[in-house]
Amino acid sequence: MKIHEYQARQILQQAGIAVPPAQVVRSPQEAGQAFTKFACPMCVVKAQVYAGGRGKAGFVKLVKSADEAREAAQFMLSNRMVSYQTGPDGVPVNVLIVAPGVDIAKEFYLGITVDRAANTITLIASSEGGVEIEEVARKTPEKVLKVPLHPLLGLQPYQATELAYRLGFEGKMVRQAAGMMMSLVKVFRQTDASLVEINPLVITKQGELLAIDAKINFDDNALFRHEEIAQMADETQERPLDVRAHKANLNYIQLDGNIGCLVNGAGLAMATMDIIKLHGGEPANFLDVGGSVTAEGAIEAFRILLADQAVKGILVNIFGGIAKTDLIAEALVQAGREVGFAVPVVVRLEGTNVDRAREILSAAQSQLPTLITATDLADAAAKVTAAVEKAA
Amino acid sequence: MSILVNSNTKVICQGITGAAGAFHTKGCLDYGTQMVGGVTPGKGGQKDANGLPIFNTVHQAVQATAADATMIFVPPPFAADAIMEAVDAGIRVVVAITEGIPVQDMIKVKAFMAGRQPTSCCCSTPPVLIGPNCPGIITPGQCKIGIMPGYIHLPTDKAASGKSVGIISRSGTLTYEAVWQCASRGIGQSTAVGIGGDPIKGINFIECLDLFNKDPQTDAIIMIGEIGGSDESDAAAWAKANVKKPIVGFIAGRTAPAGKRMGHAGAIISGGDDTAQAKIKNLQAAGIHVADSPATIGQTMARALGISA
Q1: What confidence tier does B121 reach under pLDDT thresholds 50, 70, 90?
Q2: Nearest to A92 by CA among A215, A219, A203, A4
Q3: Where are the strands (E) in A183-254, listed by range?
Q4: The pTM is what?
Q5: What is the pLDDT of residue B124?
Q6: Angle at CA B159, nearest 5°, toward B153 and B165?
Q7: What is the dihedral of CA B187, A326, B29, B175, to 10 degrees?
Q8: Contact call for residues A179 and A148 (beta carbons, < 8 A)
Q9: Is the separation of the CB atoms in B108 and B143 below 8 Å?
Q10: Is the reported ipTM for this assembly greater than 0.95?
């Protein structure tokens, strides 16, 4: 789960990490007032969205007067932000922050993530802050420092101090930087985060150490024990169909193609997308209905697929293990009766109760004229891409 | 032969009185697995619908039944604890089916298990965790521990081609797909292991490759991976140096966009070396036969084994 930058700043602040002052605003008037309040020559106005690429999209702006602040806020709040991360529809902007300009002397990167190979969490730091860390890792891997942490004890003070020295901190800044690292690890572990990033972490010309931009993602599986974090979720930042699927306990991600997929199992769902592409089609979504899908869940899955206007054909691929194929077949028939299938629906079923499932489908064939059955995965992919091409 | 489990394996189910635990205990019994009991705290002394004894703790269950494997269906908030309990009770093969265990809980489990010595007199290896978030493990015709449909599998002694493969997979249903494609070509399976879709997990590709490599009844190996992490690439490099048997690979997620979590907690492209394309390249460089399509895994294996497809 993602949260906004202003929320991440709050969490860091509560943990004792120094973040520069900023005002959360929701209107151009408030933005102007915030500029006036800070009474400094320059402020930055930043849109609060989950997606990256804000700067290039014009949703981070330097302003030199209250009027400019109002103008920037007006633009951001009345336009959706489109970047390489959002898809063509972009995301809405409802909240901004206004922050006084900071005189930066030096920028760093500080992050924590899960290291799958080492079965622990790893602290990542670089003296090349303010740019994409992946970029730094590619061009100058020696400048990305990694410290795997003890899985039970976390970061030890000596490790933090050593890392601070390796990053080039000097004098009393060493202690400050090490302290910030200790706090950051504490935040990660206490909140069940999956990613914490401060980029950039800066030393100002006045000699202060400040976390300028903060990003925190959380482990969805641990939200059950973090009610206060779960409440921070901002549904306006997700595609509406993604939100709806999430509520129905479906693993769904809307993509940009025109062939809807309904599959059980994440691996098979990805492989189904892949085989559609191999046959020249474009998947409209990833959808794993899961093993313990109910009839209601399966019907809602069909509704969600059909609610996507881009969908011109559907491929149902179920290899029943825990998921029973007859349940899916019944849900398919019921969904067809309820909403009507205006597009071709290719069905490939295998596994638990498959004979019963095939009976259900053939009995309903006359009511569902667009239903096409397939014998295996390749046959299904070929049939759905051909049907969609024919319709186009 | 087989790896990890066979007809002598005695299995308990942790969470046997829950809906999923009860359903799949019956499924495993029906398949012929030696199910010997179950654990649900507070229900010790009762029997389940199949007449299996229920115990309050894994220690009690092991003492009474000599179980050496467990199948865990305990809900996510308590699943990590259930795994550690099983390990502490001397269970040799711990199969965690549960989906949705927090990553930090699994980090604790791994630390708990690190450096463990063999715990029971009858085995010489330390405890093995399979999963979590996996379909389980099956040695066809002998022992099924998990949620996979048993009937699609082909035991080695019934394989018309005379050849059998070991299967290692991060994905459940995609494993069924591979099993089905092999079985319908007369290729048996020595053992199929679902290692699970989580970022922090038990047994990995390399450990399974090692076991299959040493197993005389395994003629070849299928590795099914997906986007995220570096396990497949690490395994490919290891296999190049250590495995002489033919390996067929498939990587799911060629069309997955970066930054989106594809169902599995571990299936997310974050760096650049963890895309399907990068992994396929690494597998091919190690001499692994990579199937282009999920529909040609069986065919690719038949060719690698010299069986007409």
Answers
A1: very low
A2: A4
A3: 193-204, 209-211, 214-218, 251-254
A4: 0.93
A5: 61
A6: 65
A7: 40
A8: no
A9: no
A10: no
Q: Are B218 and B305 in contact (CB under 8 A)?
A: no
Average pLDDT of the residues of chain A: 92
- pLDDT surpassing 70 at residue B119: no
Specify the CATH architecture of the domain B10-130: 3-Layer(aba) Sandwich (3.40)
Residue pairs between chains A and B whose CB atoms are closer than 8 Å: 175
d(C-alpha B38, C-alpha B64), whole Å: 11
Same fold, B10-130 and B148-305: yes
Q: Answer for the pair B17, B33: CB distance below 8 angstroms, yes or no.
A: no
Own/partner pairs for B43-51, CB < 8 Å, 24+ apart?
Answer: B43/B17, B48/B16, B48/B17, B48/B22, B49/B22, B50/B25, B50/B26
Widest pairwise Cα distance in chain A: 81
Rg of chain B (C-alpha set): 19
The answer on pLDDT for B118 being more than 70 is: no
Boundaries of every domain in chain B: 10-130, 148-305
Which of B50, B55, B54 minimizes the C-alpha distance to B33?
B50
Question: A277 with A283: CB under 8 angstroms?
Answer: yes
CA–CA distances in Å: residue B106 to residues A265, A268, B306: 22, 25, 42
- Whether A245 and B217 have beta carbons less than 8 Å apart is answered as no
Q: Which of B76, B148, B173 sits opposite A267 (nearest CB)?
A: B173
Residue the block writes with tokens 């599998």: B153
Chain B: residue whose CA lies nearest to A325: B149
Quote the crossing angle between the two packed helices A66-78 and A28-38, to the nearest 10°: 150
Cα separation, A110 vs A243, in Å, equals 31
Q: Catalytic annotation on A109? A: yes
Between the alpha carbon of residue B124 and those of residues A25, A341, B46, B116, B118, the distances in Å are: 64, 59, 33, 12, 6
Rounded Cα–Cα distance for residues A61 and A26 (Å): 16
User: Is any Cβ of chain B less than 8 angstroms from the Cβ of A194?
Assistant: yes
Q: How far apart are CA A18 and CA A9, in angstroms?
A: 9
* CATH number attached to the domain at B148-305: 3.40.50.261
Q: How many residues does chain A have?
A: 392
First CA to last CA distance, chain A = 38
Q: Which residue on chain B is closest to A118 by alpha carbon?
A: B200
Can you count the helices (H) and strands (E) in chain A?
13, 16
* Angstroms from A283 CA to nearest CA on chain B: 8
Q: Give the CA radius of gyration of chain A.
A: 25
**HEC letters along A276-295:** HHHCCCCECEEEECCCCCCH
The pLDDT of residue A43 is above 70: yes
Cα of A346 to nearest chain B Cα, Å: 16
Nearest of A319, A316, A268 to residue B250 by alpha carbon: A268
What residue type is assigned to position B305 of the chain? L
b/e per residue, B169-192, with b = 16+ CB within 10 A?
bbbbbbbbbbbbbbbebebbbbbb
Q: Is the dihedral angle over the CA atoms B141, B144, B148, B149 positive or is it negative?
A: positive
Closest CA to A128 of A103, A147, A106: A106
Task: Retrieve residue A220's tokens.
Answer: 């969805």
